[in-house]
Design a protein that fits this description.
The protein has 174 residues and is mostly beta strands. It contains 1 helix and 9 strands.
């Protein structure tokens, strides 16, 4: 009888610990990974031409994020970066910041260390960084961007490429 009482008491303690753990904190290491997928609309200032130049990049992103197993939440992202040598042929070391606001009230501020991507036609960029504050603070981030320009590649010779439409996958790793 005493063994059964001890076992039931232990089980009650384990169950109450799981029930009271904050969302996103019950996984391995106290943090569940966050995976977001979405679409972005980006702008280049100044527009990209064939001549490499410092360029500011801004993108607005609409995400659907998985914040815990079986739990998704809409989110918006605002990405700002500066590429020291950007042209229609490549973006080099475009380090920046993305702020993600989750519809459930949370947010993540992510610092991207940089990436190199080819721009003309279809651009694939692999970016990495860390969460500076908010959900996932201190955790490593992997960001994959696949872009296509809304303009013709021949615009590089005239007015320059002004923006892109992109598919974005963002992972805040455990």
């Amino acid at each position: 009888m005493r063994a059964a009482t001890v076992m039931l008491g232990s089980l009650a303690l384990v169950v109450s610990s799981l029930v009271w753990a904050p969302a996103g904190q019950a996984g391995t290491g106290g943090y569940e990974a966050v995976t977001c997928v979405g679409d972005a609309h980006g702008r280049y200032d100044p527009p990209l031409t064939l001549r490499p130049q410092e360029t500011r990049i801004h993108a607005d992103v609409r995400y659907t994020c998985t914040t815990a197993p079986g739990h998704t939440v809409p989110a918006t992202g605002s990405f700002d970066a500066v590429a020291p040598t950007a042209s229609c042929l490549s973006l080099s070391d475009a380090g920046g910041t993305e702020t993600i606001r989750y519809e459930d009230g949370g947010r993540s501020v992510i610092v991207i260390d940089g990436a190199t991507a080819r721009v003309v036609g279809l651009a694939d960029a692999q970016q990495s960084g860390r969460v500076a504050e908010g959900r996932g603070e201190g955790h490593f981030v992997r960001r994959t961007v696949t872009s296509s320009s809304r303009q013709s590649p021949t615009d590089c010779l005239a007015s320059g490429l002004q923006g892109t439409q992109s598919e974005v996958q963002l992972e805040i790793l455990p």
